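Notebook, student rotation project (T.W.).
Task set for the rotation: take a protein with a known small-molecule partner, predict the structure of the complex, and write up what can be learned from the model alone. Partner molecule chosen: 2-acetamido-2-deoxy-beta-D-glucopyranose. Sequence and SMILES entered below by T.W., checked by me.
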Amino acid sequence: MQLSVILALVLLVYGVEAHFTFSHLLVNNTQFSAWKYVRDVALGTDSFEAYPNHPEWNKTFPQFDLASLDLRCGRSAYKPSPKTLTADIVAGSPIGFRIAQNWPWDDFSARIQHPGPGQVYLAKAPKGVSVAEWDGDGVWFKVAYAGPVSDTKWTLQNGVDFNFTIPHTTPPGTYLMRVEMIYPNVLPETLGTQFYVNCAQVNILGPGGGTPKDFARFPGAYTKDTPGVKMDEAAFGPPLNRNLNRYPIPGPAIWTG
Ligand SMILES: *[C@@H]1O[C@H](CO)[C@@H](O)[C@H](O)[C@H]1NC(C)=O
Ligand SMILES: *[C@@H]1O[C@H](CO)[C@@H](O)[C@H](O)[C@H]1NC(C)=O
Ligand SMILES: *[C@@H]1O[C@H](CO)[C@@H](O)[C@H](O)[C@H]1NC(C)=O
Ligand SMILES: [Cu+2]
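Predicted structure of the complex:
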């Protein structure tokens, strides 16, 4: 590979627009303020980045460690925080997560630039435990997947939203709702596949009647050998987008109600 190509790839991986947090919940066609219903995350440090030392920027640094508790809800966000509120959402109505966009420097317009899929999981708070006080140490089922729209294009890439609908028959109750965007990555210059993870606290309203199945735990759902986390660069190597319809979806099957 030519040096200029390697440099371009490295910039694509480390570029300032690259990182993000899903800090806004979208409910009833409304964007709620950052970290109102989404659990706030701790600051990170990223040796690859040399950008202004702004707290919201430091929150964007991704997860790499598949065994870390931080893979559950983002950096230190498995710890409940009294400042996070719980949003009432109606099962079957359109909802979403939106990334943080208000940055203190001019040339920054945040978008989900990395190639890769998004997924949403739900975990019901145990009986008698308020979701606001729960660390999410339970079983999670998948309710949404945003994969490739074509062989060369991902649904989420270059946008700011991950919109979806949870099944109408989801059992009512309080849940942690975990969003992840996965940037599958095999470049030797990087630390590996990146996870952008956040969790909202939601109270699901609706008729219920469905029986969720195919559960996973976080951490634990993925290993370094999970297809879709571990990439075969020969098949389709991010950051290049090609043969995306062959992307193997990591984790359990999606539950549609
Ligand atoms: C996601 O939903 C919001 C309404 O909550 C809407 O304003 C926005 O345009 C949608 N985004 C996409 C990419 O469809
Ligand atoms: C924020 O990230 C930068 C870049 O990695 C790092 O130098 C700095 O120490 C971090 N700040 C805090 C408060 O963690
Ligand atoms: C969304 O609308 C429903 C009524 O349709 C309401 O019960 C709920 O509180 C609203 N959620 C939020 C977060 O405003
Ligand atoms: Cu990034």
